[in-house]
UniProtKB/TrEMBL annotation:
Family annotation (Pfam families): DUF4437
Protein's recorded name: DUF4437 domain-containing protein
């Protein structure tokens, strides 16, 4: 079980040696949320030296969101606002990370394990541990700077004023809304408000990148984070007047 964490400020937490096996270099991490049973975790990782790792596959569904610095994955460079995701078992090309790079590393349905390999773990790799799809999993590499903000899909209510950049979408099955997975950057425009209390059939988590959002659990400013299990009520949001609120 992953406990309800809401809301914390990352700066209040201590540093650990980063859980990045098979890599060369120095990195430290702050644990934002940790599942002691399956090893899932959401962490902020800072690379204190240049760091590199050969190609291979993660043992969890893994996402990196770059907050500062630069990484090279395969032959692609990703700076601030860059994102990559790989489902467990899918081979990821070699990675190089510039000293000082600061990322959010979220891993789901598995632990920190990484196996160096020149091929996938098995002949078929699924899109993720919670997928409803029969399609093979793939490596997602996105630069959010190159994307336009799109309106929220929930037409007809106050949440339609939210702006999104979808990093990864694995749709839920029509028969089971507990399936699938979505990762996005979300922006609540200045002064946005929604006075309802809502809940979801699935967990929700976010790291605040900029701005401010006041709601029933307190105030989300830059560096705050929450992991909210399914069915926990949250709401009466009021976004900051100056910059609104932006989170991943
Ligand atoms: Fe929500």
């Amino acid at each position: 079980v992953r406990p309800h964490v809401e809301a914390i400020q990352q700066a209040d937490f201590c540093w650990h040696e980063a859980e990045l096996p098979r890599g060369e270099g120095q990195a430290k991490q702050r644990n934002l949320s940790y599942d002691e049973e399956d090893g899932s975790a959401s962490t902020r990782v800072v690379f204190e030296s240049a760091w590199s790792r050969p190609g291979g596959y993660h043992h969890a569904d893994v996402e990196w969101f770059i907050m500062e610095g630069m990484i090279k994955i395969g032959d692609q460079y990703l700076g601030k606002g860059g994102y990559y995701r790989a489902p467990a078992g899918l081979r990821v090309p070699p990675i190089e990370v510039q000293e000082g790079t600061d990322i959010l590393l979220f891993r789901e349905y598995g632990d920190w394990g990484f196996s160096v390999s020149d091929k996938d773990q098995s002949e078929f790799v699924s899109r993720g541990a919670n997928t409803a799809s029969d399609e093979p999993g793939e490596l997602t590499i996105v630069d959010s700077n190159k994307m336009e903000w799109m309106p929220n899909v929930y037409e007809g209510d106050t949440q339609r004023f939210l702006k999104l950049k979808a990093m990864f979408i694995d749709p839920a099955s029509p028969d089971n809304n507990n399936t699938g997975f979505v990762s996005m950057v979300c922006w609540c425009p200045p002064g946005w408000s929604d006075n309802r209390m809502v809940h979801h059939p699935v967990f929700e988590e976010a790291y605040s990148i900029a701005g401010r959002l006041d709601y029933n659990f307190g105030s989300l400013g830059a560096g705050t984070y929450f992991f909210r299990p399914a069915l926990v009520k949250h709401g009466h949001f009021i976004a900051g007047e100056e910059r609104g609120w932006t989170g991943f």
